[in-house]
Amino acid sequence: MMFNNIDLYNPDFIIDCSTVKESKDIYDIVRSKGIIRMYSYALLYRLNLLQYNILKIGESCPSPGPGTAKAVAERLGRQLAWLPGWENPQPKSSHGNDFASNLQEEIRLGNLPNELYDKNKIVVAVWDLDKRAPNANNFITSAGDITKWVEGHLAMQYKRLYDGQLPILNYKDPTQNRAYRECNVDIAHFNSIFNT
User: Which residues are within 8 A (CB) of 101 and not within 5 positions of it... i.e. 6 or more apart?
Assistant: First the structure.
């Protein structure tokens, strides 16, 4: 195991989209938590007061560079921006529309409830990888290796709980990504530099 403090049911923080007015505020919330580069996330919906169902597990790791901090949560915000219920207008470009269109398709097929197509039903769980990997630039060969590994690890936890199934909107299996299958960092070295 690359590191052992990533728990599917214990994210570092959540964002209840019903409490957020504009989709662009997602960027500010994630950055306000100190994330400047790496995180993984899950998009969930509330079944009832105490239960959630995971729709999708994902990862984000902007390419390192001078604009990296400004790009944090941009992809996540873009995906959520397509759902109705925000005070701001929908995006002008189609970037990020895959989450909303896949959600609509699963609703149309009867696999998810109709009322789910509303940002007020979505909760975002976030795992902060910056705080777990302060020295990652010293050894990773790809900026996305850590986030992809964590995405795969979260998906594996989900599969173990749900008889090998993935969340309904994870059409590609994150446990099959190269970073998860072929961790290219010596595990002892990796664990020695990561916070636990």
Answer: 82
Cα–Cα distance measured from residue 54 to residue 133, given in angstroms and rounded to the nearest whole number: 25
Per-residue pLDDT tens for 144-189? 788 888 999 999 999 999 999 999 999 999 999 887 777 645 445 5
pLDDT tens per residue, range 91-116: 777 777 899 999 999 999 999 999 99
* For residues 10-28, average pLDDT: 94
Quick count: other Cβ atoms within 10 Å of Cβ 20?
21
When pLDDT is averaged across residues 117-139 and rounded to a whole number, the result is 81
Q: How far apart are CA 20 and CA 38, in angstroms?
A: 22
Got the DSSP string for 67-130?
THHHHTTHHHHHHHHTSTT-SSPPPSS-TTHHHHHHHHHHHHTTSS-GGGSSGGGEEEEEEEST
Three-state DSSP state, 155:
helix
Apex 84 CA angle, 43 and 165, nearest 5: 30
Q: Distance between CA 170 and CA 189 in Å, rounded?
A: 31
What does the domain layout of the chain look like in residue ranges? 13-193
